[in-house]
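Repro:
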Amino acid sequence: MVTQQQTFSNLLSPGKIGPITLANRVVLPAMDMNLCEDGEIEQGDIAHFAARAEGGTGMIITGCCAVAYPAGCTSRKEPGLSEDRFIPGLKALADAVHEAGSKLCVQMVHHGKVARIDTLDGRPQLVPSVPKPPGDMSAMIDCTPEELGKMAAIQEGKKATHREATHEDLEWLVRMFAEAAGRVKAAGGDAVEIHCAHNYVLGGFLSRYSNQRTDEYGGSLENRARLSCEVIRAVKEEVGDSLAVIVRLAGQEYGESEGLTPDEAARAAAMFEQAGADAIHVTGTALNAFANFTDGPLPDKVGFYTDNAAVVKRAVSIPVITVGRMLPEVGERMIAEGRTDFVAMGRQMLADPELVNKLKAGRSEQVRPCINCYVCVQENFWDDTPLCAVNPALGNETLLPFPPAVTRKHVVVVGAGPGGMETARVAAERGHRVTLLDKADRLGGTLWFSTLTTPDNERLLNWLGQEVRRAGVDIRLKTDATTATIKALAPDTVVIATGAVRARPSVPGGDLPHVHTGDSLRGLMTGTGDVSDQSLFLRVAGRLGGLLGITKSPAKIRGLSRRFLKFLPMSKNVVVIGGSLVGLELAEFLAERGSRVTLIEEGRQLGVPMAMPRRWTAVKHANELGVDIHRNATVERITPKTVEFTAEGKSQSAPASMVVVASGVSAAAPLADELARADVDVHIVGDAAEVDYIEGAMHSAWKVATAI
């Protein structure tokens, strides 16, 4: 977690890229918002980028902009650069970004083998060589029928065809990039970014895996880099010193053999500098996005591309921009060590567009954290506008600032999970007096428990906790909320955020003491709650952990549970019943700590409703850890030592000294019903209203808290 005392003097210092000077070293990288109409930039896109510029970001890079629109497009909603009719929208965007004190860079792209619009319009996709089929598509089994239907719908039943680029095609392509850059110059932009990664056409030529040509554009690295160098030179000739010319380059290609290596990337970067590039923006490419999406282009590990960026930086004298979960503290350290010059933070600035302003004001602890859930990314798979689990204003900046309360009310919020804390925070920021009640001894509810399996959630837990305190919310823990105790507080409005109901399985043995629901497991892990029906050893272990203070710290629990499996309520043989988001994450968590885990899922898909990229990675990781996964399986009976189930028409049995039930989750708010009968104005947020986890909790909290 970022500490309040950190100053970020390197990150916040000015920096120069070619002819332009940025106020600081923070860059918003390209992320597609899908808010344009027929290639023209609309107000929604302008509002999105302007909000990040107003937040203090040194330079804004647009999403993909098509140099030959509609040819080479992956979406009709991406901006076009191929005609003068696109200049007014670009100029309006540039003006808005400049007015906010930032610089505008326009990313220039031809999507090559992922140009979906070429397929829809009956054009073959332009490629260096006919693409190889991806080697591993097993992740698709965990896409739901609805998700597969959405992806199929945007393909309109059409199958891609390919055209190996001729010399005339390449001359045309170079001209399209140069003319596009000229339009950016005419619109008053500050920089262009030439995209040479992510399986797009220039990246395809650069890749040993994708480029099988035998002419002067294939074979050696010099030949494979030739087209990109020609584009850079043509763009530089078109814009001179009016614009900075940045090249986005994969520091490595992941997922298949013969992908681009860091050494090749560094050598290519040196060629790009020689051709006229003013900076290199180091990213990564997944050669099969379904199998390796969270390696590239959007990694799940903090600072994943830092080593590759450092290799590139040693090969060039121009600035290097590093992307890939670059949290402020990681970027500050890299710049201080001379391993990069600029830091691109994408998903983090979707979560909080005010990031840079908060760093400058010495309020880094107030930066709303990205929890790396990939909800934003998933929408692009069906050409929709990204959502953010923790920032409901993404894609609709009109939600901010919060409307001030017309009449100050006393709002009582019951339940201090993410929905309850966010409701309390927003209501207090609007001017209401807020009392937050929870029967537990700590804030967080199920969010606290989720931090054990998903450490990124701990950043959100800490942020919500400090923000409700900063907003002056009256927090009352270890407090049972009943109709009588709530009415005694004389509230004007009550918000119920007590979370979902978790039932034990209705099978023989479902009430045995070694069978846990999420609630009982949380009670044992934290040393709180009613665990009287659990074994003596587990009760003692949980109580001892509480006395030593271990169960107050998610990080300590994660660390100790890796080293001392028996110290905390775990076991060598574990059966997890239910393979949705919670069950899959628990199976990973336990298997990482040495448990032999059997995962039993009644349906076919695992990890729902995780966003697809995170789901694919979690299933892959569970398999690598040796989790014994059974789909389309039905639990028949639980005994003191086994779980008996039916899968694939066969009766099977798994050893189990511990059973965790991660199914049977449902929304319920009986307290809300009681309050309504007592004529109390009551609202419900989060899983108590509809089970949708963190995203549902945060979004429903905004909806209710802004309406009070």
